[in-house]
Amino acid sequence: RLLAEHAWPGNVRELEHALEHAVILARSEVLTLEDLPQDLGPATGPGRKDCSDAIARALKETGGNKAKAARTLGISRRTLYRKLQSLALQGVVL
Hints:
With 94 residues, this protein is mainly α.
């Protein structure tokens, strides 16, 4: 319902980003409201720290292999590189 009622000013790209975000932060195989970006879901949703922790954990588990880490996270390698670049620009250290 939350996804259907959102205005989606960024159209399909914003929806794609929101779902990628949710997949990276998901703590189970079923996505919940808490997995969605904070501007869509409840204010108590996960933040940037959780995202960087998930990426760092995946990179550690795969010995730094970004292709394997992306598969582990369920995202494309390109998305992983974008997330890494975004986190670096925001000063997050992995």
